[in-house]
Amino acid sequence: MRALEPHDPRTVGRNRILARIGAGGMAMIYFGRSGSGRPVAVKRMHAEFAREPEYRERFRHEVAATRTVSGRYSPGVLDADPDAALPWLATQFLASVSLREAVGLLGQLPPDVVFPLAAGIVEALASVHGTGIVHLDLKPANVLLTADGPRLIDFGIAADLRPGATPAGTEPAGTLGFMAPEQESGGPVSPASDVYSFGATLAYACTGRPPSDGGVDEITDDRLRTLISGCLRPDASTRPTVPDLAAALDVVRAAAQPALRLPPVVTAEIDRRASEAASPPVPIPPTPAPHPVPYTHLTLPT
């Protein structure tokens, strides 16, 4: 967390803002407390995007999708106002480290961490897809590692595939290196698109880089390499389904694969962030206005 700057809000809705968590492309993320004292993460849109109807509609879509999927595998929505002058969304705050940050700390994750992590992400995808939502931006930055397992965040470009839902935009959206070929080309998306992103995310966890940068063949665990390669097939119809992945990972789990135990350096960072939430940094005070220079009358020599 970082200290609030003088121009940062001190309240958003009924939430008291206490610190900065980070900045996204469209919004600033703050840490705060709800009216009842619950820790919250508040995402508030940047002013330049709030002036654009297209971005406001995208934020409104994100709020709706996040409400639909919130629960065991993603932070719950506590409050939101997508129609505010600066639209905002308040969700449950989770002391966590993103998968991208964990790989940054370790370089790559060992198989005994990747397998149970993969099982947790597959359970999350099954839950999300069960609501009729496809995430479409599954990547290491959007997987949070918590003491209770992985969580998925950022449903800003999620597609609602339920009958009667508003169709997603036709312009390609996602993250290069992690989005499926059909998504990148602007074609029809489906749960198989998330399966591709899942494979790319696991490849990153194993090698420290996305599969587009090579390295899948360097994965030493045969089972992981086979699993990931199947997810990365260009033809969506030939990829394993989420139930297929769950069954394959259940077989691994039955072979005495341990539950997810995060490396000590990651758990230490999660603990540090939990302590920060208990005692956020003091806001940066405003810069004092300069004192006026006293006027001095000068008498020029004649």
TrEMBL record:
Mind listing the GO molecular function terms for this protein?
ATP binding; protein serine/threonine kinase activity
Q: Where are the transmembrane segments?
A: none
Which intervals hold domain Protein kinase?
Answer: 15-260
Question: Which InterPro entries does its entry note?
Answer: Kinase-like_dom_sf, Prot_kinase_dom, Protein_kinase_ATP_BS, Ser/Thr_kinase_AS
Q: Which SUPFAM superfamilies match?
A: Protein kinase-like (PK-like)
Show the ranges annotated as biased composition (Pro residues): 280-293
- A Pfam family annotated for this chain is Pkinase
Q: Give the UniProt keywords, A-Z.
A: ATP-binding, Kinase, Nucleotide-binding, Serine/threonine-protein kinase, Transferase
Q: Where is this region: Disordered?
A: 272-302
Domain of life of the source? Bacteria
The residues that the entry says bind ATP are K43
- What is the official name of this protein in its record? Serine/threonine protein kinase
Naturally occurring in which organism (per UniProt): Actinomadura soli
